[in-house]
Design brief:
two-stranded antiparallel ribbon, 6-stranded antiparallel beta sheet, mainly beta, globular, 0% helix, 93 residues
Length: 93
C-alpha cells in the first residue's frame, strides 16, 4: 500500500504525509524544484539512477530537482514531504 495525504498549506509551502507498506514502491518521477522528506517512522530507500539512500525514522533528505527518483518502504514508513506549492511532478520517466 502507498498513500499520500495532504496535511497543511502555507503561503509558499505544502506538506503531505507519505505512507508506504509492504515494500510497495511509489512511482518513479522527477520534480521541478527540490523538496524535503522527513522520516517519522520506519525506513525507506530513495533511489536515483546512480545512488540509493537508506532513510530511517528521524532522517531528513533534500530531494534534488530534475532527478529521476523513487521511494520504497523497507518494508514500511511514514514521512512528511515538504515542498513548494508550485512544484510540478513528471511521472513519464
Amino acid at each position: 500500500m502507498r498513500k499520500t495525504t495532504p496535511l497543511r498549506e502555507g503561503a509558499d509551502l505544502v506538506t503531505k504525509e507519505m505512507r508506504g507498506t509492504d515494500g510497495t514502491a511509489f512511482p518513479r518521477h522527477t520534480a521541478s524544484v527540490e523538496s524535503v522528506l522527513v522520516l517519522l517512522e520506519g525506513s525507506c530507500t530513495i533511489s536515483f539512477p546512480d545512488a540509493a539512500h537508506e532513510l530511517r525514522a528521524g532522517d531528513t533528505f533534500v530531494v534534488p530537482a530534475d532527478e529521476v527518483h523513487q521511494v520504497v518502504g523497507t518494508p514500511d514508513f511514514t514521512a512528511v514531504h515538504v515542498m513548494p506549492k508550485d512544484i510540478r511532478f513528471d511521472f513519464r520517466v
